[in-house]
Amino acid sequence: MADVPKIKVSAKPPIRTDALVMLLDTDRVDTDGVDWGYLDRIGFEAKPGTHVMVPGDGNLVRILVGLGDRAEVTPDTFRRAGAVAAKAGAKFGRINVDFPDASSELLDPRAMGQALAEGLASGAYSYDRYKSSEVKLRDIVVVSKLGRELSSGVQRGRVVGEAVAFARDLVNEPGGSATPAALAKTVAERAMAAGLGVKLMDEKAIAKAGMGGLIAVNKGSTQPPRFIQLTYQPSGGSQNSDGSGAHLALVGKGITFDSGGLSLKSGDGMMTMKMDKGGGAAVLAAMCALPALKVRQRVSAYVPLTDNMPGPDAQRPGDVFTAHNGKTVEVLNTDAEGRLVLADALSVAADAEPDAIIDLATLTGAVMVALGQRIAGLMGNNTDFSGQISDAAKWAGESVWELPLPEEYRSALDSPVADLKNIGGDRYGGALTAGLFLSEFVPEGMPWAHLDIAGTAWSDSDTAEAGKGGTGFGVRTLLRLVERFSVPAAG
Ligand code: BES
Ligand code: MN
Ligand code: ZN
């Protein structure tokens, strides 16, 4: 599995290093020894996301990374610069990052340090399990006189970066090897080592609990399903005066491979469908980071795991199942399987009576039509809670955009034979009818939000920030959300 490089902060540059990174802004502040005349001639303007390599002292390579306009820097500027630096430095074993200490006039060192380390970890990531070995970035020293504040931010950022890398590994692992049982084992081991409570349910326990949706989707597979529950209990104080702490539930779609089932996808359509566990991966990876981040809220996670296969006993279009909350569903398209397993998971999560539930799911192609591959769709039933999520996403540098849950579309889910059918009337507004379907499995009045990450969980292009494959989208937003979470106001 991918190792995140060591990242430490030091006031003095270490003597042994392979490359030196400098972060440059367009105002040319803090740039000792940089030949701006040369950079002007080659047209390097220090714009965000750009870099050049130039010779340094002796054998050293200098990597100059752009921060953009000094007046416009945000934590995300450092996240992006970190990713560019680590990606450019990937072929070196050790790099120094000269931190522009003057930027502490503009931003909190803690926030900058965290974002920089998140970026460094992300840029250094590669999914190399099935690659013959290559040189990897192992050691990063951030050279700065900002001290404790910057370094505590950097350490937090590294923990977050590790969680993102874990989520990306889970998403990138092929459907044939990341079976529900194998994935559950990997996660359970990591979660136990982190000090979380782990409850792993096998097919018998799942049936006994009445999770009809998970069983229905699993019917076409030779691989048994799993249902993972993780719990995090803050040690010591919690934020509420009654000592209970706010309780947030996380739910993630864990389809280890989505062939569509009998409503089979095309070959092209299923090419990337190992990514259909992206929501579950983000939830599980974020959970494993909570102890190290010393989060003060109570957090529980619920992830149903199965593949969606067209085997001989696969559910047939027209079949009806009963979900964990007792509602019956007519399955007219077996490729709309995510909402079936989430129906059970949301209802199981609700049984614990958390203060709010958020689910993450690679749920619909329709959300990609609406928002593309860089913005996730947010739907919810509580303004305060959705606001907390938008704020967290903004801080984390992940884009979300709120979409409606229109009451007038609800009738598209009416079934002549069951309480609901699993698809809307036509393909228009497909992200919204999917959201409306999920809302049927959350009790009236319980704050809930749904993030459709079908577009954002996977990257087809090799950008500095992400690189091809699983992105780990949602991990950073979730971690910021749980840190700041407070019981949502009604409405
Ligand atoms: N996992 C897919 C959604 C998806 C599509 C994610 C493309 C990432 C990229 C989901 O299970 C699915 O197949 N949804 C269908 C729903 C439809 C049948 C109502 C879709 O979006 O086509
Ligand atoms: Mn599907
Ligand atoms: Zn799916």
The chain-level mean pLDDT equals: 95
Bound molecules: ligand BES, manganese (II) ion, zinc ion
Count the beta strands. 20
At CATH level 3, the topology of the largest domain is Aminopeptidase
General shape = elongated
Derived structural class: alpha/beta
Q: What's the oligomerization state?
A: single chain
Structural account:
The protein contains 13 helices and 20 strands. By secondary structure, the protein is an alpha/beta fold. It has 2 domains: 152 residues, Leucine Aminopeptidase, subunit E, domain 1 (3-Layer(aba) Sandwich), CATH 3.40.220; 312 residues, Zn peptidases (Aminopeptidase, 3-Layer(aba) Sandwich), CATH 3.40.630.10. Strands 7, 8, 9, 10, 11, 14, 15, 16 and 18 form a 9-stranded mixed sheet that branches. Strands 1-6-5-2-4-3 form a 6-stranded mixed sheet, covered by helices on one side. Strand 5, helix 3 and strand 6 form a beta-alpha-beta unit. Helix 2 runs parallel beside helix 3, helix 3 packs parallel to helix 4 and helix 5 packs parallel to helix 8. Bound molecules: ligand BES, manganese (II) ion (MN) and zinc ion. The site of zinc ion (ZN) has 5 residues, from strand 10. Manganese (II) ion binds next to loops.
